[in-house]
From TrEMBL:
Keywords: Membrane, Transmembrane, Transmembrane helix. Residues 516-525 have a biased composition (Polar residues). The keyword Transmembrane helix applies. It comes from Streptomyces phaeofaciens. PANTHER family: CAPSULAR EXOPOLYSACCHARIDE FAMILY (PTHR32309:SF31), TYROSINE-PROTEIN KINASE (PTHR32309). This is Lipopolysaccharide biosynthesis protein.
Length: 525
């Protein structure tokens, strides 16, 4: 017996990164959808930013830290810019700004949210950036906040001056009262103290309490805020591409259908013996080998060669062709495999083990019944030849002439071979392996099982379950056939086919499949 066949295709790459990339690129629709979402998002953002403008004004803050008695303190340390930055963005300053703009007091919070106050590093400058729906409105808002901050800071300085002078005025009033009642020696000391306090009050009131200066007035901006249309479109394109790749990756991770030879081999644990290409068949003809020429017919001939190679020197013997859930795929593969095996020379019998739900007999070009010759002695009772242009002989039998199909084959029948002599290659087709209990029983009586899987249609979990059941039953799994010509195609196996009924009209050649014993009988005129 020869070693296992490793069927290779364009998906079989040792590089896992390339394989993952191919999985992602299969979902091009999701990638395109992500790109469209990104582009539309960029357009929406550009449309929104097109009506938003930001104007900037700057204020130089004067030092007022202990301005009434600071000695030996540098100007840089006489003001806390962090504190002033917080005050500039406070609700009190926003209230002054909305009043200066003639707006209601209730809009103070809204205006406070639209202004941004920053302090350039190592400077005593406050920068006001105000955002509005128009260029003129943004300039007026930035200037209003700068002036409102200066007015607020000046009012705080005036309040400090008032508090300081009020305390000194009270002391001066007390000294004046003492001077009116004291004697001459005491008046001299009181007058000196009174002079000092009056000088202090004069110094306080004579100091400049201006909060600062506007060093840059805001002007109406010519362009809206943020990046331009091209930048936003490019950014949206990149973000959309990333979104599409993520969606495609998630979809490929959740996708359970087989997409390549490697996935079939990994799920089934057996080699892929053939790949059937997508080739249109006019009229839905079942039989390809011997009747038409093309890539699909050549693929069936290559499949027959590999089946013989895997089976060994004794020949394929009895081969069961099954699909996990849709039996019509298996019917086509079984019929063409039988024709291809017969074309290599030899006697081949195609047996339908599930005639109740199969229309295989109606789809095959059966020849009119004639009395069997000595060369046709290999045919079991009730079988008929198939009209296929092949070198060898190709016959068809329904149910194998065995017990009624209405019962499941029991344990006593498992060791009994199906009809056919040792020189005959028997290709058996059964119902869906995972839904037909008899298919597993038939698998125990044949020499090997060939599983048919549809590209982009068969689930990996189904193949794993098939491999597990075949292993538990002690059957031999030869390999798999990958049909690449049925992507997402509605299969006829999804609907139950009607049972065959005898042909009632007399005088014509007829073929009937009784429902009771499912033995193929051929009557002729």
């Amino acid at each position: 017996m020869t070693g296992p066949i490793h069927f290779d295709d364009r998906y079989d790459e040792p590089d896992q990164l390339r394989d993952q990339l191919r999985r992602i690129l299969r979902h091009r629709v999701l990638i395109a959808l992500g790109i469209l979402l990104g582009v539309f998002g960029g357009l929406a953002l550009a449309q929104q930013r097109a009506h938003t403008y930001t104007a900037t004004s700057e204020v130089l803050v004067r030092s007022t830290f202990d301005q009434f008695g600071a000695v030996g303190v540098s100007a840089d340390n006489q003001v806390s810019m962090t504190t002033e930055q917080q005050i500039a963005g406070s609700a009190a300053v926003a209230l002054r700004a909305v009043r200066a703009l003639g707006r209601p007091d209730g809009q103070a919070n809204d205006y406070a949210a639209r202004v941004r106050v920053t302090n350039p590093q190592k400077s005593q400058v406050l920068r006001f950036e105000f955002t509005a729906a128009g260029p003129e409105r943004s300039a007026r808002g930035a200037n209003a906040f700068a002036e409102a901050y200066l007015a607020d800071r000046k009012s705080r300085s005036q309040a400090t001056v008032l508090r300081a002078t009020q305390a000194l005025d009270q002391q001066i009033a007390v000294l004046n009262q003492q001077l009116a009642n004291d004697t001459a020696p005491a008046k001299t000391a009181a007058q000196s103290q009174l002079y000092t306090l009056q000088k202090r009050v004069l110094d306080i009131k004579s100091r400049d309490i201006d909060a600062g200066d506007v060093v840059r007035r805001a002007v109406a901006p010519a362009l809206p805020v943020g990046p331009g249309m091209r930048t936003l479109l490019g950014l949206g394109l990149v973000c959309g591409l990333l979104l599409g790749i993520v969606l495609a990756w998630v979809r490929s991770s959740l996708d359970n259908r087989i997409r390549s030879v490697g996935e079939v081999q990994g799920a089934l644990g057996a080699p892929v013996l053939g790949i059937l290409p997508d080739e249109g068949r006019p009229g839905g003809a079942l039989l390809t080998v011997g009747r038409t020429e093309g890539l699909r017919a050549e693929a069936y001939r290559a499949l027959a060669f590999r089946v013989r190679q895997v089976a060994g020197s004794d020949g394929p013997g009895q081969v069961l062709v099954v699909a996990p859930r849709h039996s019509d795929i298996a019917e086509e593969v079984a019929a063409n495999l039988a024709a291809a095996l017969a074309d290599e020379g030899g006697e081949v019998l195609l047996m339908d083990a599930a005639p109740d739900t199969s229309d295989l007999a109606a789809r095959l070009p059966l020849m009119p019944y004639e009395a069997p010759t000595l060369e046709e002695a290999f045919l079991p009772a009730g079988s008929v030849l198939v009209d296929a242009d092949v070198t060898g002989r190709f016959a068809f039998s329904s149910g194998g002439g065995s017990a009624p199909r209405t019962r499941v084959i029991g344990s006593a029948d498992r060791d009994r071979r199906l009809p056919g002599d040792s020189d005959t290659t028997t290709v058996v087709v059964a119902g869906p392996f995972l839904t037909d209990a008899d298919a597993l029983a038939v698998a125990q009586r044949v020499d090997g099982v060939l599983v048919v899987a549809g590209l982009d249609g068969t689930r990996r979990d189904d193949l794993r379950q098939v491999e597990e059941l075949i292993g538990c039953a002690g059957a031999r799994l030869l390999g798999a056939v990958l049909d690449a010509g049925r992507p997402r195609r509605r299969l006829r196996g999804l609907r139950r086919r009607p049972k065959y009924r005898p042909v009632s009209h007399a005088g014509a050649s007829a073929m009937e499949l009784p429902v009771q014993d499912n033995t193929l009988t051929v009557s002729r005129r």
